[in-house]
Write a structure and sequence with these properties.
about 50% helix; GMP Synthetase, Chain A, domain 3; globular; three-stranded mixed sheet; 3 strands; about 120 residues; 3 helices; alpha+beta
Amino acid sequence: MEKQASKRQLQVAREIQKDLAEIIRGQGMAAYGGAMVTVSEVRISPDLSVAKVFVSIFPSAKQEETMSILEEKKRSIRGELGHKVAKQLRIVPEINFYLDSTLDYVDHLDSLLKG
């Protein structure tokens, strides 16, 4: 069972989510093959060294392509994040991107309900 995140973890996660969303939005949709990337959630390890970044990608047909672009850009994104959080954090957390599939799940439920 996962331990509940501390207040500090939640604060740092929220800040990282806001900063990453800004960084990704600043690069524009063209940088991600025309897909819209939304940072839906960030979970950070207790020692603040690893951030699990959940992203939703629209349209979902571009998910695989966009995830590989995110992986390629991970170092530069982390570098930009470092500039933004340098005053608040001693170390810039390692970033791991995960696909947030809740939008797909909602679409799936919607199509089931429409029958």
